Amino acid sequence: MARHILNHLILKNLKPKEGKKITKYNDGDGLYFWVYDDGVRSYKRWVFKYTFHKVTKEFAIGKFPEWGAYDAREKAEECRGLLKQGKDPCLEKKLTILASQTNLFEELASEWMKIRLANHSEGHKKHVWAALVRNVFPYIGKRPIKDILPPEILGICRRVEKRGAVETAHRVLSACRRIFDYAIAIGVCLNNPCIHIGSALKPIKENHLVAPTDPKQVGIILRICDSYIGSPIVRAALKILPYVFTRPGELRQAKWEDIDFYTAEWRFTASKTSQPHIVPLCKQVIEILKDLYFITGKEKYVFPGTDKNRAMSNNTLIMAYRRMGLSKEITGHGWRATARTLLDEVLEYPPYIIDQQLAHRVKDPNGRAYNRTHHLEQRKKMMQEYADYLDRLANELESKNDLR
């Protein structure tokens, strides 16, 4: 039974009880009037207290005097009506707010990229955004994200599949799923329609990267790369990559400021792990870099593209391998697998040393992640020995007729 002991005059003059910052005055049937004052700020507000599924909750009605006693009691009665229907007033309030918000998919996608992809390379961010612009935004970009249904996401992915781009379809789905996860996290969406879509798409065919492990074949490829006729910048990249076996994108975006000729080290942040990494530079790489410095030393990037302010594009090395007829024999990333195999099986280096140099997430026997300086001297020795081994493979060919 409601008491309704509070009127406007009483409410206006109410203060917290002595020694307390906040006092809650009971108006009856779960409706309370909160009075707060800490000497710096003060407020008065109405709150409806209730129990839903054995959980005590508080529904914030509004501040006084914007909400008078009559309006607050009407709202409390509305909340009681929802409870009788088996509905949670707090949840219903959130749903009402969601219904009044636009929150277009494209807007949320932009927010997600700025926050979640902040530490990714510019190239990766452009690639993700371009995929969304081409494949997703034309269909749901201007739709409120809370209204988008699973069949719409499936339709988008199947359009991409029909172009024969199965892997791209899965990547688009992955990006959409993460955007919806972000929207749910910030409270503008309740469900993720992408969760079960993957089972309705064609599976991605396993396509292992081309990586020669036969020493003779490796030697042949090295000789062909050494004979590359084209840009000296591209030729230098082709020659250095097998020696350092970093990820191709890391080599393309190498900066002169990260190269230390005195210590023969290249220090940068690994793209996959976002951890500091050191690549010991063998004598062969140092010599190539010294020659290249006369060409690009005044630029930011060791391997600049046509636009000097940007690094060499991803397609540059791909096209170079294609022109030499090596697209089926080697990829830029494939040199990592080649190094992993030859260092282990031929030069017999410990796998944990090799993996650390590959910038994989490697832990020591105590479960701690190795930092970039661990085993640095061993890695320097390994990198020079591996470079000398590659040179021997290239030089052991009896004649240029063996190149094909």
Q: Could you explain how this protein is built, in words?
A:
Residues 398-404 have low confidence and may be disordered. The protein is elongated. The protein has helices spanning 8-13, 69-84, 89-100, 105-116, 122-135, 137-140, 150-162, 166-185, 215-226, 232-244, 248-252, 283-296, 314-323, 334-345, 351-357, 376-395, and strands spanning 22-28, 31-37, 42-52, 55-63, 259-260, 265-269, 276-280. The longest helix is centred in the middle third of the chain and has 20 residues, at 166-185. With 404 residues, the protein is α+β, with helices and mostly antiparallel strands. It has a four-stranded antiparallel sheet, covered by helices on one side. The protein has three domains: 8-97, 2-Layer Sandwich (Double Stranded RNA Binding Domain), CATH 3.30.160.390; 105-200, Orthogonal Bundle (DNA polymerase, domain 1), CATH 1.10.150; 215-403, hpI Integrase, Chain A.
General form: elongated
Look at the structure and give the CATH class of the largest domain. Mainly Alpha
Largest sheet: 4 strands, antiparallel
Radius of gyration: 32 Å
What's the CATH architecture name of the largest domain? Orthogonal Bundle
Tell me the total number of β-strands: 7
Question: In the CATH scheme, what's the topology name of the largest domain?
Answer: hpI Integrase, Chain A
Layout of helices and strands, plus pairs?
Blueprint: H1 8-13, E1 22-28, E2 31-37, E3 42-52, E4 55-63, H2 69-84, H3 89-100, H4 105-116, H5 122-135, H6 137-140, H7 150-162, H8 166-185, H9 215-226, H10 232-244, H11 248-252, E5 259-260, E6 265-269, E7 276-280, H12 283-296, H13 314-323, H14 334-345, H15 351-357, H16 376-395
Antiparallel strand pairs: 1-2, 2-3, 3-4, 5-6, 6-7
